[in-house]
Amino acid sequence: MSKIDELLRDAPVLVEGGMGTMLMQAGLPPGAPGEQYLLDNPDAVEAIHREYAAAGVRVHITNTFNGNRLRLTRSGLGEHFEEINRIAVRVARQAADGQRLVAGSIGPSGEMLAPLGPISALEAADMFAEQAGILVDAGVDLLWIETMTDIAEAIAALNGCRRVWGGPISVSMTFSDTPRGYYTMMGNAVEDCAPQLENAGATIIGSNCQLTAEGIIPLAAKFKELSSLPVLIEPNAGIPEIHAGKVEYKDTPELFAKSAERLAELGVELIGGCCGTTPAFIAAARDRLAALRA
Ligand SMILES: [Zn+2]
């Protein structure tokens, strides 16, 4: 049985919550790349992974969301591309202690694909394959494509990853709740995305970011309806508010835990958090889910 099948026997399983949020708490200036922080403070990033371990996650997510060559080059870190991806996997692996899985995070290119933007789908796939190749070589257990808002880019990322990795790949996209239904920023309906990702060979599909713990529940139900693949759901800790130049999220761990219970009832296999969520959110969900099982 593969590691991921073994993990999903215990579904719902918890995965890591926000990393950027934790880096900012650790001193990363707003807007600065988390990857620079990783280069300077690998031990601090490992400590964050360990906090999530203590909160009950079964899957660590590497701090490589902006770790593709294009984004790193834009933030002046292009020459550290390989080093950053390798260190990120190393610290997550160390925190995993051989007991938890490590997922290699792959975020969007940061550019629109042609014809709206400068890179073709094939160039995007090449770029994603390059990052995925390093993550795989460094020892991840699965690849974790996330926060995609263009189905064409999500498929390009999946295709790129498939060139270098025959194991599990999770693909999650970011949706808004509109009067017409759930759509990505680029106008892709969830009804189109879910089957396309499944047909393109994703192992896990779902949604992260943008929606709140309560607001994401109907979208989770949609995913369960649209696909037989395991579903991943990672809401934000509420709607962001700016106070004195700082982004704040208002949802509480208790609210998040209540939502995790409803996601579990829907049969969602993997539950985590996105922006604003911390180990306290995951620990609250763990306690609530444990109480249900008892
Ligand atoms: Zn987010």
Q: Care to describe what's here?
A:
The protein is an alpha/beta fold and about 290 residues long. The protein has helices at about 5-10, 20-25, 35-40, 40-55, 70-75, 80-95, 120-140, 150-165, 190-200, 215-225, 255-265, 280-294, and strands spanning about 15, 60, 100-105, 140-150, 170-175, 175-180, 180-185, 205-210, 230-235, 240-245, 245-250, 270. It has an 8-stranded parallel β-sheet. Helix 6 (about 80-95) crosses helix 7 (about 120-140), helix 7 (about 120-140) packs across helix 8 and helix 9 (about 190-200) packs across helix 10 (about 215-225). The longest helix is centred in the middle third of the chain and has 18 residues, at about 120-140. The model has no long low-confidence stretch (mean pLDDT about 95). Bound molecules: zinc ion. Zinc ion binds near residues 236, 274 and 275.
Please provide a brief summary of the model.
The protein is of the alpha/beta class and 294 residues long. It is built from twelve helices and twelve strands.
Question: What's the topology here?
Answer:
Blueprint: H1 3-8, E1 13-14, H2 20-25, H3 34-40, H4 42-55, E2 59-61, H5 69-74, H6 81-96, E3 101-106, H7 121-138, E4 142-148, H8 151-164, E5 169-173, E6 176-178, E7 181-183, H9 190-199, E8 204-212, H10 217-226, E9 231-236, E10 241-243, E11 246-248, H11 253-266, E12 270-271, H12 279-293
Parallel strand pairs: 1-12, 2-3, 3-4, 4-5, 5-8, 8-9, 9-12
Antiparallel strand pairs: 6-7, 10-11
Helix pairs in contact: 3-4, 3-6, 4-6, 4-12, 6-7, 7-8, 9-10, 10-11, 11-12
The protein binds zinc ion.
Zinc ion is lined by residues 209, 236, 274-275.
